Amino acid sequence: MKKPMTRTVTMTGALALGLVLAGCSDTGSSATGATGGGGKATVTFWGWAPGYEDAVKAFNDGHPDIQVTYQQVQPGAKGGYQKLLNAVQAGNAPCLAQLGYETLPSFAAQGALQDVARYATAAKDEFQQAAWKAVSLGDAVYGAPVDTGPMALFYNKELFDSLGLKPPATWEEYRTAAEKIHASDPDRYISSPYMDYDYAGLAWQAGAGWFGVDGDSWKVTLNSEANKKVADYWQGLIGKGLISGAPMYDQAWYGGLGDGGIATVVGAVWQAGVIKSGAKDGSGKWAVAPMPQWSAGEAKAGNAGGSSTAVLKGCKTPEAAWKFAHWMSTDRDAYGTLVDKAALYPAAKALLDLPQLTADDPYFGGQKIYKVFAEESAKVDTGWTWGPIMTKTTADLNDGLGRAWAGKGTITDALRAAQEKTVAELNGQGLKVSG
Amino acid sequence: MTGLTTVTATAPGPRAVPRHGEGSGAPPRWRTPLLFCGPFAVLFLAMYVAPIVYAAVSSLFAVRRSGLGLAPPVKVFDPLGNYVQALGDKAFVASLGRVALFGVVQVPVMLVLALGLALLIDSRSARGKGLFRLAGFLPYAVPGVSAALVWSFMYSPQSSPVNHLLRPLGLGIPFFDDGTVLWSVANIVTWSWTGYNMIIIYAALQSIPAEVLEAARMDGASALRIAWNIKIPAVRGAIVLTAVFSIIGSAQLFNEPTVLQPISGGAVPSTFTPIMSAQAAVAAGNYPYAAAQSVILAVLVGAVSLAFFTLTGRRAKA
Description:
The complex is a heterodimer.
Chain A: H1 2-32, E1 41-47, H2 52-62, E2 66-72, H3 80-90, E3 96-100, H4 104-109, H5 117-120, H6 129-135, E4 136-137, E5 140-141, E6 143-145, E7 147-148, E8 151-156, H7 157-162, H8 171-184, H9 196-205, E9 211-214, E10 217-220, H10 225-239, H11 251-259, E11 264-268, H12 271-278, E12 286-289, E13 307-311, H13 318-330, H14 332-342, E14 345-346, H15 369-378, H16 390-405, H17 411-428, E15 433-434
Parallel strand pairs in A: 1-2, 1-3, 10-15
Antiparallel strand pairs in A: 3-13, 4-5, 6-13, 7-14, 8-11, 8-12, 9-10
Helix pairs in contact in A: 2-14, 16-17
Chain B: H1 2-10, H2 16-23, H3 28-58, E1 61-64, E2 74-77, H4 81-87, H5 90-122, H6 129-141, H7 144-155, H8 161-166, H9 181-206, H10 210-218, H11 223-234, H12 236-251, H13 255-260, H14 274-283, H15 287-317
Antiparallel strand pairs in B: 1-2
Helix pairs in contact in B: 1-9, 3-15, 4-15, 5-6, 5-9, 5-12, 6-9, 12-15, 14-15
């Protein structure tokens, strides 16, 4: 009994040691992205969007002087960002990373990004203004914008038609539709709860900003009057029991999208990809309409998500990194694949006429859904600002939002708590907060 | 795994080793043990001691930024700042209280179950020992996160088969009420770890000399009496060991509540346990504060484990 045990222990030890050494050598080569022996610049890229791997492959085939290595990581909010920050902290981060616009300022504030304005500024006019604003702070540019997330209303047209409902043009009509749908069957709900950045999109449309910059201090406005208006509206729907308990992206949510249990999703363009792949039963039933308005006749849309390919601190080959990032955001063939695979909506102006963006989509009953999003895109307010510790802010917000959507506490309470905790953390770190 | 090694290693005793060393020449005397200890020592220092020292040192610094904070933050030496903040942080203190309550209730329940199962399998009249041993141990083989995912399906108000069956009777278990959610987590942990502890205790039961048991039996002791007066005192060391492992495990609670968080309707906040709280601090870019929380947790766990050892050790002597 004893002997085999000892042997196992030593073997495990040796194995672990081997892993440690492998780990070291791995970080040594991939992290810094130094120029290889043959004068070939190497760039490591961490991301998670479907289709990125294909883009990397296509780039490598066409660019013998640069070798991009793609590594898939967990989606940002599910641990990817944490992993990235830890890697930067440890000094072995990749050169490039997929980074949501909402998180980019937080990364910049932690000194995790590298300014590539030298190479990038010339490309400024190739991108939509709001997207460019999202990757640059002052004169610094931290990466290439990839996509934007204009929002619209995904709705189960089959269900709406069967109840004689039209896609609601205002939030008032949306409430009426919610009541009719729930009255037709107690297991049917207008929508699932919205958390963090999906909820932010709803606030964005209403002009209810969360952060602002005033000189050299931050303004935190999560509990502003404008935000209360949005909160109270959804609180009303919760109070009447019109919102499903199924969390978004949960199996129960996909089930509801497929079988009519959840009738709408107020979501960004990339939700089309999520819905299509997650709720196969909904094929042919769903359609897309403009986002409901706060007052009839208005034309405002929110934005949720949208991401960049950002250059991280410690990258030894920033020029090559930028070259790839720019290429992936602007190459017609590569981006076409991204539209197909991830329903990304391009940030580059020249790509807005891609054939993939004018195609009929059988899942959405043959509708040209990107036409709707192109119109919504023009209605998005470009003045939105993200705060410097978004991961923390949204975690605190979600604590309260989860309770509110479950009927415990209110959305207003959630916003107030997130406001207080954010201000306390900012003050604690020595940042200036005004108002 | 550590448990198994420790328990079995204590049984035969290390008597054979030094004699072997004396027999050979002078140099191997120190070289051989060194060679054997080397890999352990290197890994122990690099993977265990170094991170602890790193965390302890970094907890003495405070993150300071200025203005909008768009320049990289600087770290300022402020040895007590993070500790004062942590002890005044209601969410963190509440998380400590939560895992303490969890440990006080869940650890005894689980160990009584594990001991009971081990005694049942060990009893002379038990059939299919191998099968039950395996069946009991199997949940431990399921990775913690996967187990939590399966349980989240069992608990979720939308999919819970338990509540689906209870619904016609007008009943339902509120798995995610503020008062019950900790016990929903405890249930998963108990399911996962009872079998593991059972195996440790069962292994210890195997080392009880057969003649002692036989003598008791010939004296007419019943199976229950033997279990109570002979077996349980004999495996006392194993029970103390599993208890300490479980106390440490409770303090480090993370996987299960984290998996349940998105479907819990806010019942599991982002600071539910001390480690989740430290993670939240990391999310805010405040590594030193996370380090301070970790150090506080480690010190408390060390103190509780030490107190537990002292207490159980003293009672054994008395």
